[in-house]
Amino acid sequence: MLREWFGYSLQRKLSFIMLVTTLIPLLFLGTFAFTTSSDITKDKAQQAGLNSLAQMEAKFQFILKDVENISIFLIGQRDIQSYLKRTDENLDAQAQILGLMTNLVYTKDYISNITIYPSNNTTPLSTSTIYNSSLDKEIVIKQITDKIWTGLYHIENYLGKRDVFSFIRPIRAMNTFQTLGWLSISVDEQVLSRIWSVPQLADGYGQVALLNDRNEIMSSTYKSWLSQKADSLFPGITDRVRGHSSGVWTSGTGNTQQNILFYREPMINWTIVGIIPSKLYSAQNRYILQLTAVAVALSVLTNVFLTIFVIRKVTTPLGSLTRLLTKINPDEPLPHYPVYTSDEIGRLAGSYNLLSTHIEALKKQLIHNETRKKEADMRALQAQINPHFLYNTLSSIHWIALLNEENRIAEMVGALSDFLRFSLNKGKEYCKVSQELAHIRNYVQVQSIRFPDEFTVDYVVDARLSDSFMLKLVLQPLVENAMIHGIQMKEEPGVISIYVELKGNSMYVKVMDDGIGMTEERLREVTESLYPAAETIANDASYGLRNVHERLQLHYGLDSGIKIESRLNEGTCVSFSIPVLEDNHENLDR
Description:
Helix content is about 50%, strand content about 20%. It is α+β, with helices and mostly antiparallel strands. This is histidine kinase.
């Protein structure tokens, strides 16, 4: 029922097709735009996050270099070297050293304290009084032989309880490299964590953590993460960051899904990690989805309106034409249709009116042609008598030649009679391959009597093609052309070769001679003369070729024309390819 409803109206079919072909791409485009926008939003957010981590890393690297430079400055101070070599506690030297260290950390709020531990067990020198420290649980200072960064530990000073981590390196004598003591510079985690808040990661929705080379969390915007192993909070992070300077990946599923970004600090191989909740992208994606849906909806409504408007503009005139055509009276002229526009519909209506005029003229012409046809039939009937008279005359000549023992004349007349009988052949256009070749043999026999010992003809024919049908009288002009314009133009006898081969579903035919051939310029002229549009005038040498070429194209198609190859003083080859026909196709002539 629905199919009939659609099939009855062109307007319904066009409306349905146009709406479907435009709505589906619109939906795909909307989906693609939403997906692409979501991916771009996510990529930009991740790139912005990595840029933020890079800025944090630059600030952190400044602190690391500053701590390194302070340590190098202090271990090279002569006063500190002299003090550490002493066995007694010189209060003046202590005061001078403490004053120097205090001045160094005065403007550096991220340094909690600087402490020198003498190797002679004298009292350590520290810029601040530490009431309690868990450093001894982290390391044994006297066992340190190279510079290291400790893990996070707790101290208690005048500011209260603080989380710090320290840079510790041995202090060695300048000349003997004997270990005189150890220098410890502690970094305050609470002050350091301010770096992770400026710039804000993901507009303040993200969290940042600093991991040491053992993947322990040394500093973070989320304090409950401190001192924990990163793998316990972010499974697989150790493998993810190994061997990479930066990167991004997604962890978790559903509401707990989060994007993890990292940036490695190359100086001490620590890693800054940023965590952005995926729900942040979801909120942005919902806004993009709403915009995309509104855009697609507006496009759909506009498309529906324009489709209906355009289709009505097209189908209304067509409907009027249809109604006029359904009311045609064969005995009366076609009704006139008024033309109001110059577009395709207006031109169609004009063509309809022109067709009406042509039909009226054709009616009159048809009546006139019927009268002429009857006259032509009478002339054709009379013309059929003439071939019979010609055949009878040739038979009489053939009989008289035999009576007078003129065998060559008899053979020539007999071959000519067969040649003409096949050429007329009651107007048929197709014949068997074997008949076409027999026709050539009759022609060759006549010409061999006229031009004895001047040429020979070789036949190479695939036996499978003998009973196949082909267009009649296409070989004889080619053989004649080869004989007259190729063989007879040279002094010694020549050879004409005829090849008929089966290649796939095609019959491939070649007529070759070893005559004088053609120059390139002459070959180009002959080739151009094959085409009706050519400006060159066909002479006797190319008229027969052009005739065969046009007949082949008319009956078999444009790809079946002849092809000519020739070289001067070597010969000429004319070839063509046609489909193999197993039956007589007289009614399929093009």
